[in-house]
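Pipeline run #58 for the internal structure catalog. This entry was flagged by the ingest filter as a single-chain record with no existing model, so it goes straight to prediction. Upstream metadata was stripped on purpose; only the residue string is passed forward. Reviewer on rotation: M.T. Logging verbosity set to normal.
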Amino acid sequence: MWDYTDKVMDYFFKPRNVGYIEDADGVGEVGSLACGDALTLTFKLDSGGRIEDAKFKTFGCASAIASSSVLTEMIKGMTLEEAEKVTNQDIVKELGGLPEQKMHCSVMGHDALKAAIANYRNKGILAAEKKGRIVCTCFGVTDEEIKEVIRSNDLTTVEQVTNYCKAGGGCGGCHGQIKKIIEEIQGDKAITEHLVAPPRPDRLTNIKKIELIRQTINEQIRPMLRADGGDIELIDVDGNKVIIAFRGMCAQCRMAEFTMKDVVEARLREFVSSELFVEEDKDSAQQPHNHRTG
């Protein structure tokens, strides 16, 4: 589905420094399972104040694993001052590039490193609540986070902001606010970009759409639900309506409606089509083999 470099695939299939340093000097935690991406980065300093060891644990896609893994390799031997200068673009460059839609994975690694350094300097106190006002409720992204990725990566369109921090990648209700933030920072440059019509995506055939939906469920959604004792089944695809059924713990969970909209639907809109919406077929809850898409 994605055009990954050989280096990304190498770090995905053979990730370095997976794990958690129990007596870590710095701990950085970013993201959340509800949003589909979560990363914990830990590091240990040597007697000279350089990063002697760094490890990561992440739940995410190939890009998230590769970005986190290569970052731990990059920062080993650095002082904290040197590590602070590592940007998400440095991570991307080290990997030989990432698909535009996956740039948020490099940003997540950069944010985890900043959080771990702040944790060390605050003597073990984990980062406080996010600064700023929540703009994207689907993924919990604040205006301050959006401003930072715009400034750091010279972004000028809503699509780019979504690629770098996922804001706007769910229901799309925050697109207007994101545009205003872009214009506030980029001025005429952003307005000019908005006048250029974005290219239309290739039309998905029904077979290709179902194939991508299945792939996204298997690779991006099912592992997350199974980690909590649940599961999901694709029941049918009717136009842009995706009908699913929850299994296991998810079938009785009070948060099923949240999971359906903010995890399943958001993931499918991110990886397949922004026009998709999800409905739960509760009548099939006890019929795990009664699905109509083969």
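catalog note: DSSP finds twelve helices and eight strands in the chain.
catalog note: Confidence is low (pLDDT under 50) at residues 195-200, 288-294.
status: ready for reviewer M.T.
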